[in-house]
Specification:
By secondary structure, the chain is α/β, with parallel strands linked by helices. It folds into 2 domains: 276 residues, Glycogen Phosphorylase B (Rossmann fold, 3-Layer(aba) Sandwich); 194 residues, Glycogen Phosphorylase B (Rossmann fold, 3-Layer(aba) Sandwich), CATH 3.40.50.2000. Helix content is 40%, strand content 12%. Helix 11 packs across helix 16. It is globular, with a radius of gyration of 22 Å. The two termini are 19 Å apart. The structure holds uridine-5'-diphosphate. The site of uridine-5'-diphosphate has 19 residues, from helix 1, helix 13 and helix 14.
């Protein structure tokens, strides 16, 4: 439907549900902004938060102009009586989302303008039943890539034999038309395949197939093979009839930032593409031994760096996921003796949290040591910054494999950092490779090519822009149908 034929219709109102964690909220907000600014929709973002007083969360929400985007923070739910404190982050999020459903229902029914559509993420698929109750369209937003989406949608087809061979004999998991998942990259959910937790994941996967559409934070030229496999009804596509909309890269936009001014001032004084940015996302943490090796590896490389440092956490790679605003460490005494003094001319340490989008967009940044959260990977690609892949949890190992083996924009350690401490010499070698060495030329070049391809997809008339237009058109058509029905047509 063309926009001109929709002029008389009430503007569609889209509700978006964001699951806990800044890594989940950030792409939802970016999608919301695009739906409003490029596609003329009205959007309300409903936020499920583990801790509404979290400093980074409130800063992020305050940075949004609520005149054009409505934000509703759902009351926090207390899951302490239901979930073991040692349960994984994913399980905690699943439970929080489940417990928040009645709050979501009340929030939607209290809205003055009833939404036309509900967009949920993979943790929010249960909420699609609420969309049905209120006769809304329902979409799933996968804030990750198409390869991860392929695994999620194909999960009901994995039988126990295939899962057992994968988990116990380390055979790859095969997905029709897509790159198989090697055991070293597996998702945390697969070893749990004989538990009720896995059944919950299966349920989410099945629910996803009943959506009116699935939005994926990727673009046609980034993952043509996987997107083709989904559209091919003889391959992956036989699993779901829901159309897929590749709408990426949706990445956090650079803000005129007041916080972090001293970091940007420091960057302004450094030569072009000379600084390595080191960060493990909103929740990643390292062990004490790994922090020491990383510090010494950075020092040995003699490259400039900005490192977002968090106190060590043993045996929990996602240790700060719900509390990035608090620095409980007393100074930085977990760093090697003399490290700060020896590196003060080339390095900047930032406790807990940094303005990442602004840093990666700065011309002095020439490399990113990243935990491979998909937002971070995209933020690096759209700025043409090559990466050192350092996956820790969730789907980060798959992302790392894609960035290194398929896209050729990153290097990685020989062994998984989540399995074994990566030593200083290897770190030095990886840093020098992406920043300065001749061997890193192809990687640096490839990421610049991808940067252009990302821009092309997002610009007006590009594949992702057009995909999102189609979704907006679905909403306009739906409103029109409802209005015709209401008038007795
Ligand atoms: N981020 C940031 N400053 C930090 C750490 C993270 O601004 O110090 C932002 C980063 O730019 C990205 C998001 O938080 O947009 C992290 O998302 P990602 O998917 O990379 O990882 P997750 O946090 O979900 O593991």
């Amino acid at each position: 439907m063309s926009k001109s034929s929709t002029m008389q219709i009430t503007k569609p109102h889209v509700a978006m549900l964001a699951s806990p964690g800044l890594g989940h909220l950030i792409p939802v907000l970016e999608l919301a902004k695009r739906l409003v600014t490029h596609h003329n929709l009205q959007v309300t973002v409903l936020v499920v938060a583990s801790d509404a007083s979290d400093e980074q969360l409130s800063q992020l929400l305050h940075s949004i102009n609520q005149d054009f985007l409505n934000i509703v923070l759902l009351p926090s739910v207390d899951i302490s009586a239901i979930v073991d404190p040692d349960a994984s982050i994913s399980i905690k999020i699943v439970v929080m989302m489940h417990e928040s459903l009645p709050l979501l229902r009340s929030a939607i029914s209290a809205m003055a303008i009833r939404p036309t559509a509900l967009i949920v993420d993979l943790f929010g698929t249960e909420a699609m039943a609420i969309a049905d109750e209120f006769e809304m369209l329902k979409f799933v937003f996968i804030a990750s890539n198409a390869w991860f989406f392929a695994v999620a949608i194909y999960t009901p087809e994995f039988d126990n034999k295939a899962l057992a061979e994968h988990v116990y004999q380390h055979q790859p998991l095969k997905i029709p038309g897509c790159t198989p998942i090697k055991f070293k990259d597996t998702l945390e959910i697969f070893p749990l395949f004989e538990t009720p937790i896995y059944d919950g994941y299966l349920n989410a996967s099945r629910l996803m197939s009943s959506a009116n559409g699935i939005l994926v934070n990727t673009w046609e030229d980034l993952e043509p093979k996987t997107l083709r496999a989904y559209r091919d009804s003889n391959l992956l596509g036989r699993n779901s009839k829901a159309p897929v909309y590749p709408i990426g890269p949706l990445a956090r936009s650079v803000q005129p930032s007041t916080s972090g001014k001293e970091i940007l001032d420091w960057l302004n004084k450094q030569p072009r593409e000379s600084v390595l940015y080191v960060s493990f996302g909103s929740g990643g943490t390292l062990s004490a031994k790994q922090i020491v090796e990383l510090a010494l590896g950075l020092e040995l490389s003699q490259q400039r760096f900005i490192w977002v440092v968090r106190p060590p956490v043993e045996n929990d790679v996602s240790g700060s996921y719900f509390s990035v605003g608090i620095d409980s460490s007393d100074g930085q005494d977990f760093l090697p003796d003399g490290f700060l003094a020896r590196t003060q001319k080339i390095g900047l340490l930032v406790p807990m949290w940094a303005p990442q989008a602004e840093i990666l967009a700065h011309q002095s940044v020439g490399g990113f040591l990243t935990h491979c959260g998909w937002n971070s990977a995209l933020e690096s690609i759209i700025n043409g910054v090559p990466m050192i892949a350092w996956p820790l949890y969730a789907e980060q190992k798959m992302n790392a494999t894609m960035l290194t083996e398929e896209l050729g924009v990153a290097v990685r350690s020989k062994e998984m950092p989540s399995e074994r401490v990566v030593e200083r010499d290897e770190i030095e070698m990886m840093v020098r490779k992406i920043m300065v060495d001749k061997e890193g030329y192809a990687i640096r070049n490839k990421v610049k090519e991808l940067q252009l391809s990302a821009e092309k997809a997002s610009n007006k008339g590009g594949s992702s822009f057009n995909s999102l237009s189609r979704l907006a058109d679905d909403c306009w058509s739906f409103v029109q149908t409802l209005e015709v029905k209401a008038k007795g047509g």
